[in-house]
Every structure is written in structure tokens, then in C-alpha cells.
Specification:
- By secondary structure, this protein is of the alpha/beta class.
- It has one domain (about 35-210, about 245-305): Vaccinia Virus protein VP39 (Rossmann fold, 3-Layer(aba) Sandwich).
- Helices cover about 40% and strands about 15% of the residues.
- The chain contains 13 helices and seven strands.
- The protein has helices at about 5-15, 20-30, 35-55, 75-85, 100-110, 115-120, 125-140, 145-150, 185-200, 230-235, 250-260, 275-280, 295, and strands spanning about 65-70, 90, 155, 170-175, 200-210, 265, 300-305.
- A seven-stranded mixed β-sheet has the order 3-2-1-4-5-7-6, with helices on both faces.
- Helix 3 (about 35-55) runs parallel beside helix 6 (about 115-120) and helix 6 (about 115-120) crosses helix 7 (about 125-140).
- About 35% of the residues are buried.
């Protein structure tokens, strides 16, 4: 599909009644949700990488308290965290779009990933299997996700990510996966400020972002940096509520996190040789002139920011 066709279609769906439901049906028939198993594998692998990155900065999954920004269609990360022994997982979203059927499918099919979850969290594989089967049974009986997980996983949407209902210093990790690239800059800044408020002393934010043109996933005639050709006014024609792309670069996210008071302890942003070659083949709009070529060529990256720990009293 030509990217402009998809952009126009999503723009239309975002403006009509029942557009959200129609968007979901299209995703099931021709989008990311068409191959559920493949997408679930991708998400579980992303969760496993997050678990490894958190462990590298001294944060364990078992007994941890987590807040996820961007719940999506189904709760892969919250279920993985629940099976990994987390104490609490609060997942929030700007729009209410989580689907009960997909949540059940996720809980059922994640059985194949239980050994990986157990290994990543140091839990006994048999215990994780038992917990996964109990989760499926509860969901099949009609329990909500919160009830099925014994209150561990809570879903809230719509929620203002800049003003959650969490108490100050009540969370160990605030995280997102492939979300921040779809959020407007002022909202990101507010979410970082809120994360600073609700995180405990020494708690962390973990964010994984894909700063590439998402239309390239459906149109092979363009590359991951195609959207850098356009001015803000031109790009506005193709942005919609269902696929908003802010076109921020990796350095923007870490700069905002530092401004909110976080110390960056991990930053995997590196220019990709393929992206550098793609960059040479396009005319980048002057509004991006303040970025270096390396900064423009970074797409997928993770970063961890830590809230400063309070000094012990003398």
C-alpha cells in the first residue's frame, strides 16, 4: 500500500464515528494484528530485552512496582511482568483500546514463552507455568485482568500520563515500548515530570523507541527516514490520531529526560550504517538542520534514566 493512501485512510478513520472500531478491524485483517503469533513473539522479545537492560542497572522484576505508558491492544508486557513475579503493574493509555479477546489470546499463547520469562526473572519454570494456567482459567471464567491477576495488573484508560493517580514515590519503574515516537513533545515532557514524582528514590524510567518512518513498514518504495523530507506543515497532512509520528530524534528524548531531573545511565542510540546510506539518498528538510547526520540516522534505541537517590541523613 502506498504510504499516502494509508495516511489518508487513517486520517479519515480518526475523524468519523466508529473510526476506532473500523481501525481495529483493519488491523486484524491486514495490519499488525493479522499475524498475532509473530507480533506476540516480537513483543515478548522486547520485554526480555527490557528485563535484561533493567537488570544491568540493578532493577529486578520480582517484587517490582511498574507503570507502563501505552497499553495498546493487549497487555503483553504486564502479563510478562506478572508471570515474572512483579508486585504491581499499572498500565495506562491515552485511549481505551485494549481488547478482551486479544488479552485472552495473549495469556494463552504466552505459554510457549514461559521458559524465557522464567529465565529472565530467575523464577522456577514450573511455578510460572502454574501461574499462567491459572490466569487463563480466570480469564475464561470472565474475570477482568485485574481480578485474574489477583490485583497485580491494573488497566486505566483514558488516563493523562502527565497526571496519574499514583502516590508519590510509589513506583520502581516507569516504562514504554514503541510509544514515545507517537506522543507530542509537551505530553512527553509532562510524562517525564510525572514519572519523577511517582518514582521512588533511585527508581528508573525505561523507554524503547522507534524513531523511523512507520509508513515504511507498508510501503517498500520509501525508507525509514522518508518523513524527514517534509516540513511540519507538510507532514501534518499525513499525521492522524491512529498513527501520529512526532519525528523527534533519540537525542530529544534523553534531553527531555535530563531536563526532568533524570540521570541517563544507559543509552543504546547509535547511527545505523543502513540509515546513513538512506539519509544520503534523500533531501532532508531544513527544519532538521540542527541535528547531526548521526543523530538523524538513529532509529531504534533504548534508554534508562534514574531518579537521584536521596542521601541518607548524617
Amino acid at each position: 500500500m502506498h504510504w499516502r493512501v494509508k495516511g489518508a485512510l487513517q486520517k479519515f478513520l480518526s475523524a468519523v464515528p466508529c473510526g476506532g472500531h473500523l481501525h481495529y478491524l483493519l488491523q486484524r485483517r491486514a495490519g499488525d494484528l493479522k499475524d498475532f503469533d509473530r507480533e506476540l513473539d516480537t513483543k515478548v522479545e522486547a520485554w526480555r530485552l527490557m528485563a535484561n537492560q533493567l537488570r544491568s542497572v540493578g532493577i529486578a522484576i520480582p517484587h517490582g512496582r511498574f507503570l507502563e505508558i501505552g497499553s495498546g491492544w493487549y497487555p503483553t508486557f504486564p502479563i510478562c511482568l506478572y508471570l515474572g513475579g512483579a508486585q504491581s503493574v499499572h498500565t495506562v493509555d491515552l485511549r481505551r483500546q485494549m481488547r478482551r479477546r486479544l488479552t485472552l489470546d495473549c495469556a494463552i499463547r504466552i505459554a510457549l514463552r514461559v521458559p524465557a520469562i522464567a529465565k529472565a526473572t530467575g523464577r522456577d519454570t514450573r511455578d510460572v507455568f502454574e501461574q499462567q494456567r491459572a490466569l487463563v482459567r480466570a480469564l475464561l471464567r470472565g474475570s477482568s485482568l485485574e481480578r485474574a491477576t489477583g490485583g497485580v495488573v491494573r488497566y486505566s484508560a483514558p488516563t493523562d500520563v502527565g497526571a496519574t493517580d499514583r502516590a508519590a514515590s510509589s513506583v520502581d519503574v516507569v516504562f514504554s515500548n514503541s510509544v514515545l515516537e507517537h506522543v507530542q513533545r509537551p505530553v512527553i515532557e509532562r510524562s517525564f515530570a510525572e514519572a519523577r514524582r511517582i518514582l521512588r528514590s533511585g527508581g528508573v524510567i525505561f523507554h524503547s523507541a522507534n524513531c523511523g518512518d512507520h509508513y515504511a513498514h507498508v510501503d517498500s518504495t520509501i525508507n525509514q527516514l522518508n518523513y524527514l523530507r517534509y516540513s511540519e506543515a507538510e507532514w501534518k497532512k499525513w499525521n492522524s490520531a491512529f498513527l501520529y509520528q512526532n519525528r523527534l530524534r533519540a537525542i530529544d528524548f534523553t534531553t527531555m529526560a535530563r531536563a526532568a531531573g533524570f540521570t541517563i545511565e544507559l543509552d543504546t542510540s547509535r547511527p545505523d550504517p543502513d540509515r546513513l546510506a538512506e539519509l544520503a539518498a534523500i533531501d532532508v528538510h531544513p527544519q532538521f538542520a540542527h541535528y547531526s547526520r548521526d543523530q538523524l540516522a538513529i532509529t531504534n534505541f533504548d534508554f534508562v534514566g534514574r531518579k537521584p537517590a536521596r542521601l541518607a541523613p548524617d
